[in-house]
Amino acid sequence: MKTKRSPFLSFTALLTAAVLALPLPSALACTRAVYFGLEGQTVTGRTMDWVEDMQSNLWIFPRGMKRDGGMGEQGFQWTSKYGSLIVSVYEAGTADGMNEKGLVANLLFLVETEYPPAEGDPRPPLPISAWAQYVLDSFATVADAVAALREPPFRSVMVVAPNGVEGQVHLSISDPTGDSAIFQYLNGKLVIHHGREHQVLTNSPEYDQQLALNRYWEEIGGTTFLPGTRRSADRFARARFYINATKQSAYPREAAAAVFSVMRNVSVPLGITTPGQPNLASTIWRTVADQKNLVFYFDDSLSPELVWVDLKRLDFAGGTGVRKLTLHDHLDVGGDQTAGFQTHQPFVFLAPH
Predict the structure, then answer these.
(1) R_g of the chain computed on alpha carbons
(2) What ranges do the domains of the chain cover?
(3) How far, in Å, CA of 294 to CA of 62, rounded?
(4) Domain 26-206+246-343's class?
(5) How confident is the model at residue 221, as a pLDDT?
(6) Known catalytic residue: 185?
(7) Active-site residue (options: 27, 28, 29, 30)
(8) pTM score, two decimals?
């Protein structure tokens, strides 16, 4: 008996083959998603996928800190208006964090990034290692950040990670209202996507193309079929569906748990890497930021312990000093670590040589 082939399955097979034929750079890792719960319960989660340990720790930065992005007098300078809790990478940059107003910033890799040329640009440089920190230091809401950064007072410049990988990144921010913005440098120009609808971000291709790919999966419906690979477009489709399909709760613990479940769904299992693609790799840590209640969670993939910090109990006043919670090589640290920080000298942002 001859079996009739479903047109849906045939089209899906063709689309899957086409996606798998995309070049590897279109599959770079990391995922970010914003959860809209009930009664204003907004939570942002992200995964950090990388080929090696990034020596990440948690830092508290107070108000009133004078900054130069690690470039001294020649660099862009500012003073922090808001205190923040951040996750460091290589003790040389801010990759993730939340400030005392509930604004969250996440840096993700984007291979298509092309920063503004230096020639003819009089603006002082800001290395991308300090980009997220500047936003957390300076703004209370996404709208404020977008208004100020449409014409940035600095020129973003690339840095090279200690493992030799060039820092091609884009930035996502969100606030307690659920408002979001995504900042990308494409062809030397800053492109901003601003609006509550921009709740999910992964990596390549460019964000406009991610949205186009996702429209196909939305037409199929996530309960029918979702793509399952670790590629960026597939993770985008899964995160977009699950962050909205999961139970929308007003209960903080339940909302945070829902976001963690989505972040784990789009995580890459430990030990998976691709030669020559250091950023197509295992998920080494995850963060979840409860922006209504100002609680920040950190989940190291190598640790059995979840760490969280209550920003409402932190003193961000000027003069309180920089404080650090050492997590690198301390996998037994877990639970509520709000009181676990120690006074420490701030790290120096990685800057171009």
Answers:
(1) 20
(2) 26-206+246-343
(3) 16
(4) alpha beta
(5) 65
(6) no
(7) 30
(8) 0.89
